Amino acid sequence: MSKPSPLEFWFEFGSNYSYLSVMRIESIAASAGLTVVWRPFLLGPIFSNNGWSTSPFVLQKAKGDYVWRDMERQCRKYRLAWTKPSQFPRRAILPHRVALFGAAQPWIGEYCRRTMEMNFVQDRDIESVEAVSEILQGMGLDAAATIAQACSDANKVLLRSQTEQAVARGIFGAPTFFIGDEMFWGNDRLEEAIEAGIAGSG
Amino acid sequence: MSKPSPLEFWFEFGSNYSYLSVMRIESIAASAGLTVVWRPFLLGPIFSNNGWSTSPFVLQKAKGDYVWRDMERQCRKYRLAWTKPSQFPRRAILPHRVALFGAAQPWIGEYCRRTMEMNFVQDRDIESVEAVSEILQGMGLDAAATIAQACSDANKVLLRSQTEQAVARGIFGAPTFFIGDEMFWGNDRLEEAIEAGIAGSG
Q: What is the pTM of this model?
């Protein structure tokens, strides 16, 4: 009898398809009896490795145009609010540092959803200390202390190493899910990853 | 009361995700009461427009590695046979000329499925006159006459113009579906396109 595997969730706050998965994953995983392992990382270095200066949705105009229409339809399907961001992709190094610092905390899911909603619903900057503080305070956390710890040298190094690990694991976009060594790319594959997790990794 | 819209299906014989849709579309559309409009086109010029010499699955190694694993899983899900092609993407100008020539014929679906199976199940070259003849003869058609008509100057021009039309419509990959002006990209969106078609375009 195999036991359920944890669901590793690699995501980026600037990524619109990560928005869909951040909003959906915790309740779906809970229903399936799976634990989510939150793995924030930065897409920038992955784009750079391909010789790209920014998101392919910006560099490839036809694909970009399509993506915003697809997002409207996907958000309607999942009953999620949606505003096309006026700036894309939004820089989000501080939010990622906080997410990495809090990855094992009970507030991580709520923190990630609020950050995503600030970007993709409220269409606001998410990179500033003010923005991150507002989110943390809204959750009743000590914003100043949390941000200070998230900006420690150790945590900064950890975010870089997490992103290097993403590359080493073969990640080329976000969101990406792992069940053991089995990789699933894209919000469209979340349900398949969950099924694989229920089946267990052995 | 709106009436069902035709389902425009833009595909490429060299494209692995087009394989999934070619195998699935006719029976799904028939169940939904939708007519399929077969629109073969060439991805090469679209890749060139992006400055790419070949498929992104070749140019981006991490993505390419993932795609073959994803194809195994998708084929298992849809109960389709699958062999990773030893040559990718396969050139297929002659098969596309024949598909365009026969796009409104009753044999088009069967012809496309056999061509895709030669590429993605039998792992064979699909570009030669011999390969295309074998497929047409296997369906009881006059191979020599069909190929001669498919290779007329008029039909050659038509394939170029079909590919230009793909670019003009905003197509950036295959398979792509249209219900009226609404575009759906990727085999993962076939079911959404069908739903939109059932709802009708007005």
A: 0.94
